[in-house]
Amino acid sequence: MEKKAVIKTGGKQYLVEPGALLTIEKLDGSETMEEGGSISFDEVLMVLDGDEPKVGTPTVEGASVSATFLGNGRNKKVETLKYKSKSNYQKRYGHKQPHSKVRIEAIK
């Protein structure tokens, strides 16, 4: 059975395994990171290795997940419209959420 882990980053939790490509919330300081650089996620909530899962309280001691930074991007635009009938009022809003892409290399 392949090793898996649950990590927490950007206020969300992800189930990861080595070789997985992830689109996560934009990492702090990622503007200065170079593509192909190494990242370490230390907030590991659970590690699945074989039959026995290791569950942290709240994190697993000494566990970390290493990944390769692949770059930043932005999601598709989400548009909303505020409209009031009979008053000739409408307001459009748009938002593109920034994200980072990473490839999981190893679970330690």
From TrEMBL:
SUPFAM superfamilies: L21p-like. GO terms for cellular component: cytoplasm; ribonucleoprotein complex; ribosome. The keyword Phosphoprotein does not apply. GO terms for biological process: translation. It comes from Candidatus Vogelbacteria bacterium CG10_big_fil_rev_8_21_14_0_10_51_16. This is Large ribosomal subunit protein bL21. GO terms for molecular function: rRNA binding; structural constituent of ribosome. Residues 92-101 have a biased composition (Basic residues). Keywords: Ribonucleoprotein, Ribosomal protein, RNA-binding, rRNA-binding.
